[in-house]
Amino acid sequence: MGYVSDAQRMAVHANKADGGKGNPNKKLGSPTLRKLSASCKAAARKKFKVYPSAYANIWASKQQKAGKC
Question: Which 3-state string (H, E, C) describes 44-57?
């Protein structure tokens, strides 16, 4: 099978590997895709009246990304 570019070849093989789902460029181990840690959830529960909420989750994810909890 002839490919126009290396990117096309990688995309085809990535689609075959994951059953045709997902982005071939997505890194599954990236910090943005990890679950929130228990300590960050606890800090968000203390800070916000309502948890889970969009605001609390965003705040907790930023705190975790910054390494504060």
Answer: HHHHCCCCCCHHHH
**What pLDDT, on a 0 to 100 scale, did the predictor assign at position 2?**
74
pTM above 0.85, yes or no: no
CA 13 from chain centre, in angstroms, equals 22
Which string of DSSP letters, residue by residue, matches 11-68?
A: HHHHHHHTTT-S-TT--TT-GGGSPPPHHHHHHHHHH-SSSS-HHHHHHHHHHHHHT-
If phi > 0 it is left, if psi is from -120 to 50 it is alpha, else beta; for residue 67 that is: left
Residue 66: closest CA among 37, 42, 27 = 37
